[in-house]
């Protein structure tokens, strides 16, 4: 019977329409839409990566080697399991253009291909032509950014190493570009055979060979990978296949999607504050109705169920609207999304992300509406009649408080489960809860401070200011809802602003101060003396560091596969730089163990980077097997040393004794620290004397990384802006809900002699105070969040950035001021007599 009566009451209440629930619907719909849209785009990208895995990889499978080509037996195995095999050689070099006595150089990522390339997909060129035609003879193609930088047009000549080539066309798109990962230089493609005589692939040169396999239909990838690992893992061969054709892109999409979902959850939390405020305001307006129902014998449980049904129906409407918006938005933005991504994306409806967003919406609606709804159950009818014009104040029963806590825990657990990065999700949830707690405390503190200041002598005679302080500090009002909703949105933006500023500072300012001018690779042993002779006598060069350089793959640790011991740690994921030294290089700090004697010629030993050793669980005395040029070298770890990769100087994870690598062909690398005005002459002289070497200008590499990080920060900022929009809607809702109160306040003030300007100043000051308070607290919360991310996620330093902080405070004050003024005109225009007579 109780359920039927409650349903009848809810149905009759809903006849009144959506008045008072527009903010409720908007907050819920926006939060759900943000999560649904991000999830749909993420699944569309992941679907494209999976569907086009072979195209992105360049084959059904890829087997790659460092420093060498496949041996005849290895190539024979590939041709036995595949229908077609394509061989690619990949390395960095310098493009040289001589024009009118001026020489220009540009870093490029060279891809030497054979006639079978590409196995899948099509290379797009400008002007359009077949790739075979473009690469005939000494023909080559390069990306437009490199061609424009060097002023090259189709038909122009350029040099690589000691050989000349012709630019046949501009490279618009390579089908396997996303699978190749991040490169410091734009792409250049030519035939591998055309590299003969260029001097670029001498023994020890840093290059990688990739063998793309077109496999028979229905091939068992897992079984082939197992066979390949068993046969070639100990020779440094690495396997990838179309099941994850672009692992770097997959990881990026996963992390970015997870992070944006968490930002969407923050938006739902902001919206939840608005939902709670809307429900509370609605119930305050229904005080007389609830009082009458209780007087007529309705039980508290019946009233709770009636309004829970009503709110549940409206929440369902908001969730449906959010799902519709979240499903439609990616389709509308599909052309933009497809143009920005290097992978094929077919945006469509995906039930999974929509169901996930709906679940988040249901839990959020329950979490933020149960508390205000539950308060009505324990309030007596007499109290309701006595406070019929005010707010209902009552704590819900402990059972409802427990359910609220359980809902919050469920929401956090589901977010951790679905995000794929549970640790990040849990810390993000902790941050949101902590920020809400800080904002709530700030709201309470602001009210107390405002009450105290309103009675201070300093504000006497300043009517508008004193009224504004009294309103902010008075009971009820909009202080808590404005500070919570706007403050959380601003906190997220403040955190992003601090993180972005610190990353830019670290990349653009801190790093170059201690980083070298050039990072030089592929210096042949017989070139090292001449290389050093050119630099050591140059007054513009402050320091030169060199080291022998090899590349190796860590294959086993204590005779167990390295992946079993270290998991997916970056040290194990690919080939790593390896060097040798008889004595510790200058500045080396050995944290544990001891270096080998200078004349040591016993079994191989190694020194390992201390931090990375701790991360993968290495101990002194462990045996580590490194495959170099197809040869396994097992060395005992005798020491751990500090390696600071952030300086862009020379740093190796693995350093071995010289005898362990005796006879292995290798080159040297160098870092050159020079004054800016000396850099051009150094590069010119070195390139002319040694065409085979590659000099990577650190500033250009820094700019490339900064460009990627800027795009990342922009994407995150766009996601956070949805949270801010939700906060602004809550703010507008609070301003609209308080319009009736402002009408009465304006009438009273006019009756006692206030003029319109004083009333307007009072409204404006009150709004600006609330916004400034929300912005100030957001700076604290955002600063703490920024510090935590920089210190514990980015592993970098943190310095407070004041410009974005000031913008946050001013933005918060401006937002509340505009919202307050937007709903101030009707109160200002109201006639006092009419308003006061209506309240009699």
TrEMBL record:
<dbReference type="Pfam" id="PF02687">
    <property type="entry name" value="FtsX"/>
</dbReference>
<dbReference type="InterPro" id="IPR038766">
    <property type="entry name" value="Membrane_comp_ABC_pdt"/>
</dbReference>
<feature type="transmembrane region" description="Helical">
    <location>
        <begin position="357"/>
        <end position="374"/>
    </location>
</feature>
<feature type="transmembrane region" description="Helical">
    <location>
        <begin position="259"/>
        <end position="283"/>
    </location>
</feature>
<feature type="transmembrane region" description="Helical">
    <location>
        <begin position="715"/>
        <end position="738"/>
    </location>
</feature>
<dbReference type="InterPro" id="IPR003838">
    <property type="entry name" value="ABC3_permease_C"/>
</dbReference>
<dbReference type="GO" id="GO:0005886">
    <property type="term" value="C:plasma membrane"/>
</dbReference>
<feature type="transmembrane region" description="Helical">
    <location>
        <begin position="805"/>
        <end position="825"/>
    </location>
</feature>
<feature type="transmembrane region" description="Helical">
    <location>
        <begin position="424"/>
        <end position="446"/>
    </location>
</feature>
<keyword id="KW-0812">Transmembrane</keyword>
<feature type="transmembrane region" description="Helical">
    <location>
        <begin position="399"/>
        <end position="418"/>
    </location>
</feature>
<feature type="transmembrane region" description="Helical">
    <location>
        <begin position="21"/>
        <end position="41"/>
    </location>
</feature>
<feature type="transmembrane region" description="Helical">
    <location>
        <begin position="304"/>
        <end position="337"/>
    </location>
</feature>
<feature type="domain" description="ABC3 transporter permease C-terminal">
    <location>
        <begin position="723"/>
        <end position="827"/>
    </location>
</feature>
<keyword id="KW-1003">Cell membrane</keyword>
<keyword id="KW-0472">Membrane</keyword>
<feature type="domain" description="ABC3 transporter permease C-terminal">
    <location>
        <begin position="263"/>
        <end position="375"/>
    </location>
</feature>
<keyword id="KW-1133">Transmembrane helix</keyword>
<feature type="transmembrane region" description="Helical">
    <location>
        <begin position="467"/>
        <end position="496"/>
    </location>
</feature>
<feature type="transmembrane region" description="Helical">
    <location>
        <begin position="759"/>
        <end position="785"/>
    </location>
</feature>
<protein>
    <submittedName>
        <fullName>Putative ABC transport system permease protein</fullName>
    </submittedName>
</protein>
């Amino acid at each position: 019977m109780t359920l039927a009566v409650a349903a009848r009451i809810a149905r009759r209440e809903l006849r009144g329409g959506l008045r008072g629930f527009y903010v409720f619907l908007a907050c819920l719909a926006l939060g759900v839409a943000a999560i649904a849209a991000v999830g749909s785009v993420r699944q569309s990208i992941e679907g494209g990566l999976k569907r086009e895995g072979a195209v992105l990889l360049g084959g059904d499978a890829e087997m790659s080697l460092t420093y060498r080509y496949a041996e005849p037996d290895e190539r024979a195995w590939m041709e036995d399991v595949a229908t077609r095999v394509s061989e690619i050689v990949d390395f960095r070099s310098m493009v040289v253009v001589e024009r009118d006595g001026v020489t220009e150089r540009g870093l490029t990522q060279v891809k030497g291909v054979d006639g079978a390339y590409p196995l899948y997909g099509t290379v797009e060129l400008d002007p359009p032509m077949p790739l075979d035609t473009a690469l005939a003879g000494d023909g080559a193609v390069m990306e437009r950014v490199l061609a424009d930088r060097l002023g090259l047009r189709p038909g122009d000549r350029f040099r690589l190493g000691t050989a000349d080539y012709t630019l046949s066309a501009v490279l618009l798109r390579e089908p396997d570009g996303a699978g190749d990962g991040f490169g410091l230089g734009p792409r250049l493609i030519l035939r591998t055979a055309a590299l003969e005589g260029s001097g670029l692939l001498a023994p020890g040169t840093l290059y990688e060979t990739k063998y793309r396999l077109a496999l028979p239909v229905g091939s068992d990838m897992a079984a082939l990978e197992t066979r390949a690992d068993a046969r070639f893992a100990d020779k440094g061969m690495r396997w990838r296949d179309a099941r994850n054709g672009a692992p770097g892109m997959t990881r990026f999409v996963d992390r970015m999607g997870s992070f944006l979902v968490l930002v969407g959850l923050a938006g739902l939390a902001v919206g939840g504050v608005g939902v709670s405020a809307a429900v509370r305001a609605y119930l305050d307006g229904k005080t007389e109705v609830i009082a009458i129902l209780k007087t007529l014998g309705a039980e508290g449980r019946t009233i709770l169920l009636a309004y829970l049904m009503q709110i549940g129906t409206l929440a369902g409407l908001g969730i449906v609207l959010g799902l519709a918006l979240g499903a439609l938005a990616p389709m509308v933005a599909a052309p933009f999304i497809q143009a920005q991504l290097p992978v094929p994306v077919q945006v469509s409806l995906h039930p999974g992300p929509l169901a996930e967003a709906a679940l988040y919406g249901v839990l959020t609606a329950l979490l933020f509406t149960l508390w205000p709804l539950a308060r009505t159950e324990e309030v007596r009818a007499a109290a309701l009649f006595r406070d019929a014009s005010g707010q209902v104040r009552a704590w819900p029963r402990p059972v409802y408080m427990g359910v609220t806590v359980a809902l919050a825990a469920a929401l956090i657990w589901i977010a951790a489960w679905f995000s794929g990065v549970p640790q990040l999700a849990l810390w993000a949830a902790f941050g949101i809860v902590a920020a809400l707690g800080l904002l709530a405390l700030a709201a309470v503190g602001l009210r107390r401070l405002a009450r105290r200041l309103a009675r201070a002598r300093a504000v006497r005679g300043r009517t508008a200011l004193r009224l504004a302080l009294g309103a902010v500090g008075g009971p009820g009002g909009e202080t808590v809802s404005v500070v919570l909703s706007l403050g959380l949105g601003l906190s997220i933006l403040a955190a992003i602003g601090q993180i972005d500023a610190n990353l830019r500072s670290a990349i653009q300012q801190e790093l170059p101060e201690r980083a070298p001018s050039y990072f030089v690779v592929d210096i042949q042993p017989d070139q090292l003396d001449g290389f050093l002779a050119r630099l050591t006598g140059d007054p513009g060069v402050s320091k030169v560091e060199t080291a022998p350089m090899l590349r190796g793959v860590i294959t086993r640790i204590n005779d167990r596969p390295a992946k079993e011991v270290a998991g997916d740690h970056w040290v194990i994921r690919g080939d790593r730089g390896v060097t040798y030294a008889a004595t510790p290089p200058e500045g080396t700090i050995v944290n544990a163990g001891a270096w080998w004697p200078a004349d040591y010629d016993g079994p191989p030993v190694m020194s390992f980077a201390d931090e990375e050793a701790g991360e993968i669980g290495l101990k002194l005395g462990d045996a580590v097997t490194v495959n170099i040029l197809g040869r396994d070298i097992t060395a005992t770890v005798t020491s751990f040393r500090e390696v600071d990769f952030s300086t862009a100087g020379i740093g190796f994870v693995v350093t071995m004794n010289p005898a362990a690598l005796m006879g292995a062909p290798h080159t040297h690398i160098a870092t050159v620290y020079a004054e800016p005005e000396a850099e051009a002459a150094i590069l010119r002289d070195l390139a002319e004397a040694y065409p085979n070497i590659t000099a990577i200008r650190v500033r250009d590499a820094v700019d490339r990384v900064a460009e990627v990080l800027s795009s990342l920060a922009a994407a995150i900022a766009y996601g956070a802006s949805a949270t801010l929009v939700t906060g602004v809607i809550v703010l507008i809702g609070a301003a609209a809900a308080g319009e009736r109160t402002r009408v009465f306040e304006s009438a009273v003030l006019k009756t006692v002699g206030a003029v319109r300007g004083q009333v307007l100043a009072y409204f404006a000051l009150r709004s600006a105070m609330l916004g400034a308070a929300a912005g100030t607290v957001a700076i604290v919360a955002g600063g703490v969040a920024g510090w935590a991310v920089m210190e514990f996620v980015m592993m970098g330093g943190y310095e407070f950035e004041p410009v974005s902080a000031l913008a946050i405070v001013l933005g918060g004050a401006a937002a509340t001021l505009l919202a307050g003024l937007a709903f101030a005109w009707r109160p200002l225009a109201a006639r006092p007599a009419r308003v006061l007579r209506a309240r009699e």
